[in-house]
């Protein structure tokens, strides 16, 4: 057994995350003009219903074929077929608590336990007042059959599952993140 | 039990990262840090087995870096005010393996304790020669290096006479979504630790100590800059079924 080292603790990004973590191309998982691209927009709200203006959302997802350009994918790393696909998005919230990501729908994924994961994005939420990132997933409302058999969704209480489902919007989807409250978003320990 | 949960039904064998160490990280609800009260989720986190999306992650490389991104003292026409320092260290995983070619982002207040951000209204002077933002990529041994100035402490309104100890914000990707980490680096001997609820939100004193850089006299450069060493350990992996077959931990 190799040496085991203590991990570095997490700390909040604090109120000035914008200076350090803003990327001009952050929200663009795919470049503007990519065929099939849509916006995911949402608002982050706290337990008092107040929009969170000093937070940031990061997204990570497979490409439309369900592949990753990453050496640890046992199917092999595959550079994306879609030009400019980064798989990763980053958006700080604006003065009204909104974030936005331009992306395409990821493909379904084989689950190591034998099933299939429905198309999804995995999200990290950072912010002032969050001492460690929060992890959640975004699923698509137009994939009812795939969502019904998704192993992660099935592991969540039925009455909270809809907090992981985006809703249709004019130019894509809406996905609000409730840190607390009656509709508190499901957050995961990974 | 390491064999069963890594050997897959569909023939997919995924690396598994050790679960997030709840003792090392601060509890999300830490009422001494007042902003956590309305922002920490009330429901317990739900266990998410690591699948393909979690064991992969963005491998963002050189394309994001400019030539002076690691040197916060040379990003303007003139030099910033303050004590010039070098901050360097290694990024490794919990098993001591270097994390090579990974993006490290930092941001900080200037020498007077003021951030270059419109939201920072503390009336300490801004420095026209200091932005306070840096980026670097670790080398093949996981090493990174920044040149900057010692950040100042600054007041905030969390409690009476509240001051943040001097710190530098660090953001790291590692090689997988599971390893993503944002933390803060502190300086040795800071007299403000005792009253800082963010630093003290980490309950384990040994874990807290890891956030304090080490003054590094061997790397300090004569007549130029003091050096601090800040090693960062990200999550390690579970052993695979093919290693440590007898390890039944």
From TrEMBL, chain A:
Keywords: Dioxygenase, Oxidoreductase. It is an enzyme of class 1 (oxidoreductase). One of its GO terms (molecular function) is protocatechuate 3,4-dioxygenase activity. Residues 38-168 form the Intradiol ring-cleavage dioxygenases domain. SUPFAM superfamilies: Aromatic compound dioxygenase. InterPro entries: Intradiol_dOase_C, Intradiol_dOase_core, Intradiol_RC_Dioxygenase, Protocat_dOase_a. Its EC number is 1.13.11.3. The keyword Oxidoreductase applies. Belongs to the intradiol ring-cleavage dioxygenase family. This is Protocatechuate 3,4-dioxygenase subunit alpha. The lineage of its organism: Bacteria, Bacillati, Actinomycetota, Actinomycetes, Micromonosporales.
TrEMBL record, chain B:
Pfam families: Dioxygenase_C, PCDO_beta_N. It is an enzyme of class 1 (oxidoreductase). Keywords: Dioxygenase, Oxidoreductase. Its EC number is 1.13.11.3. It comes from the Bacteria. SUPFAM superfamilies: Aromatic compound dioxygenase. CDD domains: 3_4-PCD_beta. GO terms for molecular function: protocatechuate 3,4-dioxygenase activity. Residues 87-115 form the Intradiol ring-cleavage dioxygenases domain. Belongs to the intradiol ring-cleavage dioxygenase family. This is Protocatechuate 3,4-dioxygenase subunit beta. The lineage of its organism: Bacteria, Bacillati, Actinomycetota, Actinomycetes, Micromonosporales. The gene is pcaH.
């Amino acid at each position: 057994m190799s040496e085991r080292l203590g991990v570095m603790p997490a700390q909040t990004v604090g109120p000035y995350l914008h200076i350090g973590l803003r990327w001009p191309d952050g929200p663009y998982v795919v470049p503007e003009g990519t065929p099939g691209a849509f916006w995911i927009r949402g608002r982050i709200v706290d337990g008092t219903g107040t929009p969170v203006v000093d937070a940031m959302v990061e997204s990570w997802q497979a490409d439309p074929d369900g592949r990753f350009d990453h050496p640890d994918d046992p199917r092999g790393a595959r550079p994306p077929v879609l030009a400019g696909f980064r798989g990763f998005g980053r958006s700080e919230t604006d003065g009204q608590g909104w974030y936005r990501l331009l992306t395409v729908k990821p493909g379904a994924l084989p689950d190591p336990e034998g099933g299939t994961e429905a198309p999804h994005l995995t999200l990290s939420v950072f912010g002032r007042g969050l001492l460690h990132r929060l992890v959640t997933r975004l699923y698509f409302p137009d994939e009812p059959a795939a969502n019904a058999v998704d192993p992660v969704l099935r592991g969540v209480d039925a009455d909270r599952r809809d907090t992981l489902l985006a809703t249709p919007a004019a130019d894509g989807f809406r996905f609000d993140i409730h840190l607390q409250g009656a509709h508190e978003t499901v957050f995961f320990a990974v | 039990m390491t064999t069963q949960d890594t050997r897959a039904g569909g023939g997919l064998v995924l690396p598994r990262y050790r679960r997030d160490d709840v003792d090392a990280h601060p509890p999300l609800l830490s009422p001494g840090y007042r902003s956590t009260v309305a922002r920490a989720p009330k429901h317990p986190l739900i266990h998410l087995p690591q699948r393909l999306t979690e064991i992969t992650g963005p491998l963002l490389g050189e394309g994001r870096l400019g030539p002076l991104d690691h040197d916060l003292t040379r990003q303007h026409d003139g030099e910033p005010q303050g004590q010039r320092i070098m901050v360097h260290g290694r990024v490794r995983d919990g098993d001591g393996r270097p994390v090579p070619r990974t993006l490290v982002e930092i941001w900080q207040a200037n020498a007077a304790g003021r951030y270059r951000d419109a939201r920072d209204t503390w009336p300490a002077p801004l420095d026209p020669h200091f932005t306070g933002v840096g980026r670097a990529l670790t080398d093949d041994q996981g090493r990174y290096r920044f040149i900057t100035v010692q950040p100042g402490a600054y007041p905030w309104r969390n409690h009476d006479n509240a001051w943040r100890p001097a710190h530098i914000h660090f953001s790291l990707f590692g090689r997988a979504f599971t390893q993503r980490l944002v933390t803060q680096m502190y300086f040795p001997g800071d007299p403000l630790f005792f009253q800082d609820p963010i630093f003290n939100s980490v309950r384990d004193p040994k874990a807290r100590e890891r956030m304090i850089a080490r003054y590094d006299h061997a790397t300090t450069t004569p007549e130029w800059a003091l050096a601090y060493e800040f090693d960062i350990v990200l999550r390690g992996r579970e052993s695979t079924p093919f290693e440590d077959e007898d390890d039944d931990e």
